[in-house]
Each structure stands twice: as structure tokens, then as C-alpha cells.
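We give the entry.
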Amino acid sequence: MPSDAALLPSTRRSLLHRIAVAQAEGRSPSLVAAVARGGGVVWEGSRTMMEGHGPDGSVQYRIGSISKTFTAVLVMRLRDEGLLDLGDPLEKHLPGTGAGEVTIGQLLAHTAGLAAETPGEWWERSPAALRPELSDVLGEQPFRHAPGRRFHYSNPGYSLLGSLVEAVRGRPWEEVLRAEVLDPLGLGRTSAQPVAPHAGGWAVHPWADVMMPEPLEDLGLMAAAGQLWSTTRDLARFAVFLARGDERVLSAESVREMRTAASPPEPGGADAGYGLGLQLTEAHGRQLAGHSGSLPGFVAGLWFSEADDVAAVVLANCTSGLPAATVAVDLVRIVAEAEPRIPEPWRPLRESDPVALDVVGPWYWGTSPFALRLSADGLLELSPLGAMGRAARFRPAGDGTWTGLAGYYAGETLRAVRLPDGTVSHLDLGSFVFTRLPYDPDAPVPGGVDPQGWRGIG
């Protein structure tokens, strides 16, 4: 059982108030929520229409499209094992789909151009027997846009990824998920089929306080896009994994790649883009990653802030009316603002990198001043000292160079160019020359430096 002793009573009350308002205004039969901090669950809460019978963190709810994040983890594992590349066309590993020209990375990031939904009846509320083959999932005209041109959320795209996992592993998607993700992470209450205790899904009338049960369908080939049932405790642990990584499943570097934008935000939308199986958003001045989910009878939201070390999960058993993802964002905000993260104590590096020490300090790109620092995690951090300039972080490449991690310089090489005596002449960053002095005449500044040097107007 989790302990909420780490949170102040005022914070716990604010969290309870937020979910109470959500359940009442959203008219959901029940709602259960959890907050994780410091690697574990620190708070749980629930509200229900049944007096004295509230759900807890072990009760399953259907989580809809949060299932996509689990599928993405499986695909990233295949990539990390060298069994495929994100740039591979689907046809290389799963032939004969009719959409084989799209890449695996495009499917993960919803840029493959595929339709948002399957043809025929609404797949979430109809039997999987209507879609026995991938051709039934995709239809005769699977594309709505040219592959790679724009973000277009696609449920069939993740059905293809589930089938890809099965083709490469030679086992059913659910079996692979259990062996490679759920069991290693201790997510024993996450499953493709409901396992008691679990909530029933309900539709609440939009204009009257009455309700009726929603049908429960097995999604078949669409399982990888939305089949899973889970609990707030399991999903809180999963959120911690997505923020930190776990070498038994995926490294910290690989989960960081998942939460790095691979698709641009939609114009006019609130999202900050889409990673590889993770939605990205900015709310209340903080960057969040996670995913929302819904299926008839259920809504779900999972969000975490890496910078604040806070994650929140909200699950409810109503078809609509309760914005579970928004409530989860609010729970993150409540904890992050009421109890800001206390930074780790400063500690020096265990070992200093003599190559990196040669390049730290002030540098100039033309006349723009920058500072280059070696951080405690061994990364180089480039920061503009003026009003303009691009900040960046670089990891050592093992050959005396560094590779950009995000933004404009992502994937670009930072290299220290040395003189014959071994001292650093200048830095080369993707052809940009950084010098120790503004337009240093002793460095190979592109275009050269006026031989008369700096001067006034007199």
C-alpha cells in the first residue's frame, strides 16, 4: 500500500478537492486517482456514487489509448535490440499490409498519413470479428495524407505496430507485453482482459442524471491501440518508468527519446507535439509527457513532469463528460506548486574529463557570447549569455566529440579543433565556429576578420 505521509495535509486536501469536483461535475459513477513522486505512489484518492464503497488503487479500469504507450515501449525494445530501425519501412518486417511504405518511426509518431479510424462500424463498440485481417483494419484507402507530411492521429497505425511486434517476436502482442514490460516492472494488475476487481463502464445521459452500461468488446487486431485494463497504482509505476527508464525494459536514454517531440503540434491546439507513443503538452509553465485514453464507458489520463518529479493518473468509468487528462494535469500542478521539488545537493564530478575541461568557459559565435559548462552528469551545456542564442546539451560521443541532444543542435557534432601544440583553437558546431574572443583573428572565422580589427567611428 502506498503512503501519503510524504505530502502535507493541505496538499492532500487540495488533491481530494480537485477529484471530488471532477467526479461531481463530470457525473462519473466513480473516479480513482494517484500521484507519484520520488519513484513511488505518495497519494491515492477516489470518489464514487456508491456510499462507503469507493475504489482504490487496485481496481482495474479500461485505459484506452494509454495502451499505445505500452505498444511503443515494445517497438523501442525491438529497435534497441537491433531487430529493426525506426527508419525501416513497415514492409521490411510486416509485408503485405498495403501500407508498407510508411516507416516504423512514422507510425509511432502518427505521421504515417493513415486514417484516424477503421472503415465500417465504430471499432470501439463493435466485435473484433468484423475486422479479422489487417486489410479490414486499414480498408481499401488507408491513407488520408502523404506519409511524413503532417501529424494525423491514427488508431489503425498502432494496430500495425502491434502486428509488427507479433511478426518480429513470433508471439501474440499480449504475451510479449506481459513478458517484456508488465512482469519486469511489477505491473501485475495490468491486462488485456478485465480481472476482478474491476469497474464497469457506463454511459451517463447528457441531459438527465440517468445511465446505462456500455458494451464490453474485445478489440482483436486493434488491441495494441486501446485494449488494456489497468489500475492507478500500476500506471503510476509505469509513469515513473517513462520518466526514469529501467534497464530491464528500456534505458533512460530510450525513454527520453520517446518523450522528445517527433511530430509538430497541431495549429491552434494545446499540445506541444507528439513523441514516440507519448503525448506532449505545456501547462502552467511546465513541460509534461503522458497520454490520454478513452473507450466507451471509460476515460483515463496519465501525465508526468520530469522536472518536478511528479506524475498523476486519473481513471473514471464514464463515456464522456469528465476530462480525466485535464484533471491529471491539475494534480501534477497542485503537488508541484504546493511542494516544489527540493534539488539534490551539489556534488562535484567523481572524475573530471580533461578533454571537456579544456573547452568549458566563455565562447563567442561571432559577437554573441555563450558559456559552456560541464555538468555533474557529464554533459556539456551551452547557454547564451545575451538576449538571443540557442541553448543546447551535448553528450560525449567517446571519440573526443560531443553530440547534441535536443532542439536545433540535436544530432549535431560539437568538436574541439586543436592547434599543433594541443591547445584548443576553436569549437566547430555543425560548421559554426565558436572562438574565445569575438571574431578572434587567430581563429578560422568564416569570411575572415578585417585586418584593422575593432575600431570606433573617429
Summary: DSSP finds eleven helices and 19 strands in the chain. The first helix runs from residue 9 to 26. The mean pLDDT is 93. The two ends are 77 Å apart (CA to CA).
